[in-house]
Structure formats: structure tokens, C-alpha cells
Amino acid sequence: MAAVLRFEAVSKRYVSRRGLRRISVQALDELNLEVEPGEIFGFLGPNGAGKTTALHLLMGLIFPDRGRGTVFGLPFGHRHAHRRIGFLPENLAFYRYLTPVQLLRYFGRLNDVPADELERRIPELLGRLKLDEAVRRPVGGFSRGMLQRVGLAQVLIHDPDLLVLDEPTSGLDPLGRRLVRQLLLELKARGKTVFLSSHLLSEIELVSDRVGVVDRGRLRRIGSVRGLLEASQRVELIVRGASAALLDSLRQQGAEVAERDHLHRIVLDRSQQRPAIERLWQEGGEVLSLVPARSTIEDFFVEAIEEALPPGGEPQ
Amino acid sequence: MKIWLVALNTYRGLLRHRALLAFILLFLFTLISSLAGLYFASRLAEGGAGEQSRQMFARQIEGLTQTFAIYAFVLAALTAAYLLPGEIRTGTIVPTLGRALSRSQFLLGLFLGMNLLLASYLAMAGAILGGLVLWSGLPPAAHLAWGVLYLVLIANIVGAIAFFFAMRLSPLVAVVALLLWISLPSAAGAVRLYSQLWGERLEAAASRLLPAWDLLEFDQFLRLTQAPTGRGAEFFLVGITHGLDYILIFLLLALLAFRRRSLLSPN
User: Fold this and answer.
1) Core vs surface per residue A256-269: b (16+ CB within 10 A) or e
2) CA atoms within 13 A on the CB side of A71
């Protein structure tokens, strides 16, 4: 299946002047990446790794120095490709004097959405994003969280096939974050592709099919989230009624044990999981939950960054 | 259609801009300060000095017309110089250009938005000046229509030049460069008073930089006290064609400069 989004050895260097000094920063260094149709791709990286640069290149806001990229087979920034893309920038800025309805109508019409379709879609989206009580207020007076919701509404107004989202949950409360997660999963179920850049590893882990880690402009690692979870060497058990002897024995085998509210949280190697559970049951205890140790994506991220570090530890 | 959408949104934004309020205040100040002269002229008419008062009225209105014309150029220059840099600085350009909209359509939309503001300004100024002409009892002059046409043409040229310079350099440099450029022919005239040689050199430079600029003599056609020199159809045709050339060339240069411009500064 043809990739929806493709970076082919894309490089970008920023050059600025401070007085007589010429400062040059390599933001992207031969980035190669493909995003398949229908997947949610998590794009991870530390601050200044080049994530936002990659997104801005893909939207045609800046231009690569070398390499090329395509979206739906068209070059980056092509307006016919934009008709199928919904873009949420990290730093949102809208015309302050427009109300959400006016803003969505404007953006919808710029994306060739028919008027009757827009009139149906706008209240639906505003309701879905819990903005229906603020429809008459200009967006200039909105809080960061409300602006983020308007941003998500403008992403969805033309029912795009590819969503390019830069920190979509930024500024949102826990309910808003949950709403975004639900939306992303619904969109994926409808066959949409999502290219998601975020710092929040837990968010990425909950929704993404694949993740890629970029650091100092290069893609350091790429892998499927399911594969990572299955490959996890440690699991986390929450148990009730474990004997002191069992807990001591697990500690001696290298497990981490913590007690809280008469429950025990045990993190142990996958190989120890079965004998530990069987012994617990024999002693009359019960297992309340069993999940892969939650630091999987974090480990993946940290390993990718550490592998990329030059000897000595600090980035150059 | 999309150009029109951008234009309407630009116009809506310009109407709410704080700088426009300052401009309206300046406009009102000019108007009110010249009302004293008009009031004096009307009192003269009451005193029986009919012809004298009409002449005075006409001069006052003429002065006001010329001032309002200069304001139109200032409005066009400032609006055009700050429109696009403002969109880039605030970041509103990012979600807009993320749409199925080309950069050319966006830029032309901004230019048309500037023209909508200019049209509103001219309608307002025209209504006030028209009212004053009616009040003064002066006969309506046909050549004023040419004056208005030249005025719109020059304001658009100023806007297109400001667009280009603001794109290549900065809004402030654009406004300063524009002022220097436009005032070059009159500066040459002033220099000629002191030095014939340098005056001629400056005039040669002005005619090279602004060929046929002197054909756009808007001030001649915005006069009420004396009719402009009789001109043939060819004169108007050549002047207007040159004016349109200016607009097209500078808009094209601005479009070319904007096509590959990075819209974000590195952070």
C-alpha cells in the first residue's frame, strides 16, 4: 500500500545572525520516514529534536534544503494535498475577532466544503468538542484549552484523510485529553491516518500504532507499539492477600514490591510471572491486574536518545 | 472565490485594528480644523461677499481634498506594509495556509482586502466632500472623476510597492523606502532650485526608477478652483496603462518573493 506521507532524506538547516555572528542549526538531517494509510503514528523526540520543523515542512510553511517529501503522492505544501489534510499547529493563533462558527465557516469554505455541509457539520463539531456554549464569543477571549478545542474543530471541519497534530492535548484538562483520545480512535476506526507529535509518552502509547523517535534531526528508532508492549521483559501485578514469605521470595529474585492500602504492586520479570501467580493462588490470594510494565515507551524513547549520544554523553 | 473570502476576512480584521482608530482620529481632526475656514466663508456670504466667499469655500474644499488624497496613500502604504508581516508575526497565516489555498490566492486576497478598506475610506471622504461642495453651491466638475480614478490607481501602486518591500525587507523599511521613492520627483524639483546639475541628475534617476510617473497627475484633476489643462484621450490611456503596469509588476514581484518565503522564524 502506498505511503500517505513520505520524507525522503529531508534536511533543513536554520541560519540566523546575532550581530556579526552567523548561527546555524541543523534542524533535520536526512530524515527518512513513511506513514502508512489508516495508522496513528506517534512522532516523538526531545525539545529541539526537529519534530515541529518536520511538520512545518510537510505543510509547506518552510522548505527543505535537501531531499524531498510527498503527501498523498504530491509534493509538500501542494494545495490539492491540503484539501485532504487537517493541521493543528503547536502554537495556535486564530483571527481574534471571529467567533468559532465564523472561523469554522471561513476555514471550511477555504477547503471547498459545500455551504449546506458546513451548516450541518459546524454545530455537530462544536457540540462534540464542548464549545456549544461559546459559539457567540470571539475566539480572542478564549482560554488556552478552549482555543485548543477550536483548533481541533478546524482540523476536522473538512473531514480530512490525514490529520497532522502537533501536541493536540496541550492546554487541555483530563476530560479534554480523554475526548481527544476518543476522537483519534474513532478517526482511526474510520480509516483516517494520524501523524501525531507529542511529548506525552503515555498519550502516544494509548493511541498510536507505531512510534518513531527523532533526535537532532534524525530518525533514531521506529517500532510498533504492540510489538514493544509484547517485547516488554517486565510485567506489573497488583495483588491482594500475598503472604510475607511470597513477597520476600520475589524480592530475592529481583522483583520490586510496594504496598499500598493492603494491596501489593509487584514488578517482576516475565519469566517469574507464572510461578508467582500460581503460588499466590495456592495461598488464597488474588490477582487484581496484570499489565506490561508501564515504562515501555519511555524505555524505548530513552534508549533511542542514549544510543544516539556521542561518547561522553552530552549532545554536540 | 477564495481570494474574495480572504479579502473579506482581511477587511473585517482591518476595521477592528487599533491603528485604524488613530487614522480616523487624524482624519476627523483635519476635517474639524478646516471647518473653521468653511464657517468663516459662509459668514462672508451672509455679509454679501458672494463671489469672494465661493472662492474661499472652493479653496478650503480643494485643500481638504488634497489632504484626504494624501491620507489615502498613507492608508494604502501602511496597510499594505503591515498586513502580511502581521499575519506572519501573529501566526494566523499558519492555519490559513494549511487550507487548500495557494500563496498567490492568499496574497491577492490581502491586496483586495486593502482595496476594500480604501474604498470605504474614499466613500466616506467622498460623501463628506460631496456634501461640502453641495453646501458651497459650487458646480460639479467632470474632471474630478479622473482625479478619483488616478487617486485609486496611485494608492494601489503604493500598496503593491509596500507589499513587495515589506516582503523582501521589513514593514518599516518598506514605508521609508516608499516615501523616498514617491517623493523623488518632487525632491528633484526642489534640488533644481539650488543646483541645476544635481536637479537634472535626480530627475533622470527619478524617471529611470519611476518611468512615466508624471503622467499620473492626480492633484491637477482634484482641483475645484481651476480646470486642468485640456488633455486628449491618449494622455489618459497612456497614464492609466502605466499605472496598471506599476501595479502588475510590483504585485508580481511580491508574489514571486512570497512563493518561496519561509513563514516561520527558527526558535
Assistant:
1) ebeeeeeebebbbe
2) 27
**Measured torsion, CA atoms of residues A171, A173, A179, A185, in degrees rounded to the nearest 10:** 60
Could you tell me which CATH class the domain A5-229 is placed in? Answer: alpha beta
* Domains of chain A, residue spans: 5-229, 233-292
How does A100-123 read in b/e, with b if 16+ C-beta sit within 10 Å? bbbbbbbbbbbbebeeeebeebbe
Q: Examine domains A5-229 and A233-292 and report if their fold is the same.
A: no
Radius of gyration of chain B (CA): 21
- State how beta strands A40-44 and A66-71 pair: unpaired
Condensed to tens digits (0 to 9), the pLDDT of residues A59-91 reads: 999 999 999 999 999 999 888 999 999 999 988
Instruction: Enter the pTM of the model.
Output: 0.81
CA A284/CA B78 separation, integer angstroms: 82
A241: phi > 0 → left, psi -120 to 50 → alpha, else beta; which?
left
Angle CA(A60)–CA(A62)–CA(A63) in degrees, nearest 5? 90
Residue B150 has pLDDT above 50, yes or no: yes
Q: A85 vs B98: CB contact, 8 Å cut-off?
A: yes
- By C-alpha distance, which of A226, A222, A234 is closest to A300? A222
A85 touches chain B (CB under 8 A): yes
d(CA B111, CA B128): 26
Q: Do A16 and B5 lie within an 8 Å CB cutoff? A: no
Portion 4-33 of A in contact with B at CB < 8 A: 14, 16, 25, 27
Per-residue cell: A267 = 514488578
ipTM score for this prediction: 0.81
B13–A94 CB contact, under 8 Å? no
Distance from the Cα of B16 to chain A's closest Cα (Å) equals 8
Q: A217 by DSSP, 3-state: which?
A: coil
User: Looking at the domain A233-292, which fold is it?
Assistant: Alpha-Beta Plaits (3.30.70)
With CA atoms as reference, the chain A residue closest to B261 would be A62
pLDDT tens digits along B202-258: 878 777 777 766 666 666 766 766 766 666 677 778 778 888 888 899 899 989 988
CB pairs under 8 A between A and B: 76
Bridge partners of A234, per DSSP, are A269
- Partner-chain contact A61 B97, CB within 8 Å: yes
Of A62, A79, A106, the CB nearest to B262: A62
